[in-house]
Amino acid sequence: MTILKQDKGELILAAALDLFEKQGFDGTAVPEIAEAAGVGTGTIYRYFATKEELFNALYGRWRGAYNDFVLAEFPPGLSIRGRFGGYWRRMIGFAKQHPHATRFLELHHHAPHLDETNRELSQRYLDVANTFFAEGVATGELKDLPPRLAVALMWGALMALIKLEAVMPLEEATIAGAEACLWDAIRKHA
Amino acid sequence: MTILKQDKGELILAAALDLFEKQGFDGTAVPEIAEAAGVGTGTIYRYFATKEELFNALYGRWRGAYNDFVLAEFPPGLSIRGRFGGYWRRMIGFAKQHPHATRFLELHHHAPHLDETNRELSQRYLDVANTFFAEGVATGELKDLPPRLAVALMWGALMALIKLEAVMPLEEATIAGAEACLWDAIRKHA
Amino acid sequence: MTILKQDKGELILAAALDLFEKQGFDGTAVPEIAEAAGVGTGTIYRYFATKEELFNALYGRWRGAYNDFVLAEFPPGLSIRGRFGGYWRRMIGFAKQHPHATRFLELHHHAPHLDETNRELSQRYLDVANTFFAEGVATGELKDLPPRLAVALMWGALMALIKLEAVMPLEEATIAGAEACLWDAIRKHA
Amino acid sequence: MTILKQDKGELILAAALDLFEKQGFDGTAVPEIAEAAGVGTGTIYRYFATKEELFNALYGRWRGAYNDFVLAEFPPGLSIRGRFGGYWRRMIGFAKQHPHATRFLELHHHAPHLDETNRELSQRYLDVANTFFAEGVATGELKDLPPRLAVALMWGALMALIKLEAVMPLEEATIAGAEACLWDAIRKHA
DNA sequence: AATGAATGAGTGTTCATTCAT
DNA sequence: AATGAATGAACACTCATTCAT
């Protein structure tokens, strides 16, 4: 009732996450996913109409989890600096807990296979980020930059850090150091 | 018979750059490249023994050009800040002039198809970057961070910017703003 | 659902035997075999990893059957002449029952595609023949020839006969006549 | 004017003989022949319209030479035994002088690529042989066998010998021994 | 006359998808 | 519901043939 009685759909998604992240969409064969999931090839098609649909279900699942985790509301009144730190800790926390999923999300962020729903999910993330930066600019705490630029810089830095983690595990000092760097990057200096 | 008569090898490389960047290695079919290049399928194999060899020739060509352009020596005595700006301007300059190539390089930085020579070319780039940051840390101008972390943050931010450029052309103000952000990110503050 | 339901692997082997014998290894395309077998092209690769493996499976199967049939032990005490006749009848019997297979074996006796196992199977056949002739020479019943020469002459004559059968079916008188010729060829005359 | 000034057609035929004998018709690529002949690929098509035509020209050339050499008239009045020995020596002589060509002829004796002219050349050879055996049967010197059978046995034995030569050079004793065997095979015994 | 770069139909092989069980 | 054998379109790659030079 715990591990043994897993839904096969879940087993398939788990195997697909692993393989798509390692080999990419085109480099991964459906029977390969089936074998890794321990199900028959045909079974995959009982849960997902096509390989693309499986891919989008997987992306949607993790992008949704990511958004839910990172974009949750903060206690009202939290400062820009506090929220920045919060976002940072959440993103890092998610990445440390789900490194495969995080790399999968990054790798396929612009994949041509993404459907409209998933594009919107990705966009929602950007919208929140843009709003946050706009607010920080308005309060004068952040540099007067186009929010998209700030978001891009933060996101890119984060992703590079995630990739780094595959080689060199991120310790608390590193994480805190990176946070300081990035806060210095965007805050307005005296 | 003059301008029309381009080397077919070059036409093939140009078409491959475009397609590999858009669709990735596994997502691009050799006949697709041939058609985009305006040559017969078989012709590709007169210039490159395999699809992998074509890929590596392409990567090597652009990684070489990138390294030559970005890593060229600076005038002696240039400050850390000056060199940081120099690197930044060169990287942005290259990216603006060759956006497809830059994205291609980023996308396949860790591709399993890269041969040893190309892996070394990629490494050379990282070595120079690491050395630069170590020096800046030693002079006390940069934050005391592991150089790999600093490099990762810079590189990731740059790549995010490159991707952004596909959507929103980078103006001078944006470039300068990003440079200021990143310098603030790494420099030691009073 | 009974007789119609043949193993596809067998259908493939049967079609391949026919085509390899008529057209040789390089002259036979895998889709051609598939069509002759009445299966899809891809199906062949569910049974045999490569064309070479199919070829070797086919060769091994028939060389094994041939050896089992022809090289079976004789009742002890049987004379050289008796054994010669026995071998002859078995070889002819096999060839009449499996003419395609026999020609296939002859055609590919020295094929570069044969794997080690099959080379050994071919060699085993020659070893028995050499031993038989050596024994006949030792008893004084056969001419004092190098066994390899005698084996070559016999084998060559047999194969020519097999090819002849494709044009002119072998009757009992012909078979007996040929046996008499060949026995006269190798026996020591007064 | 001797070796340097060879006709390119001859160079091509010589290279083709070598490769067809080693690799078969389907296993040999036209550019491979061109390279072995030291000419350009296109040049082959100035001498032979297609690969098949080259093959047939080659076969015709050697089959013609073989027939001319082996089937030449004997001095009138030569006995059956004498003529048998004559044929044998000529066949062996040709094979020793032109081992590649002999194996090439044997290998492609029944090739599907042979044109009508070449089929007739092969047939002429069989006709002479058949006539010879029929005459020997008529004089009572040879066993009363269908000539085709006798010819098949002789030809097969010869070819086996030729193949043997590739492994174990034929000495005079071997050749004479084989001749004795084969004469014993066909002559009528007391 | 001679070439070899160029080609596209054809090769061996893979894989997303189907379907009888 | 679950399977995995079966498939054929598509893949990477080859080669007989052509043709501009």
In total, the number of domains of chain A comes to: 2
**CATH first level of the largest domain in chain A:** Mainly Alpha
Count of helical regions of chain A: 9
Strand count, sense and barrel status of the largest sheet of chain A are: none
List the helices and strands and how they pair.
The structure is a homotetramer of 190-residue chains.
Chain A: H1 8-23, H2 30-37, H3 41-47, H4 51-70, H5 80-97, H6 99-107, H7 116-139, H8 147-167, H9 172-186
Chain A binds a DNA duplex (21 and 21 nucleotides) through α2 and α3.
Task: Give a short synopsis of this structure.
The first copy, chain A, is mainly alpha-helical and 190 residues long.
Offer a few descriptive terms.
2 domains, mainly alpha, Arc Repressor Mutant, subunit A, 0% strand, Tetracycline Repressor, domain 2, homotetramer, 73% helix, DNA-binding
3D architecture notes:
The structure is a homotetramer of 190-residue chains. Chain A is mainly alpha-helical. Chain A folds into two domains: 1-48, Orthogonal Bundle (Arc Repressor Mutant, subunit A), CATH 1.10.10.60; 51-186, Tetracycline Repressor, domain 2. Helix content of chain A is 73%, strand content 0%. The longest helix of chain A has 24 residues, at 116-139. The mean pLDDT of chain A is 92. Chains in contact: A-B, C-D. Chains A and B meet through helix 8 and helix 9 of A and helix 8 and helix 9 of B. Chain A binds a DNA duplex (21 and 21 nucleotides) through residues 8, 29-32, 34, 39-43, 45-46, 50-51.
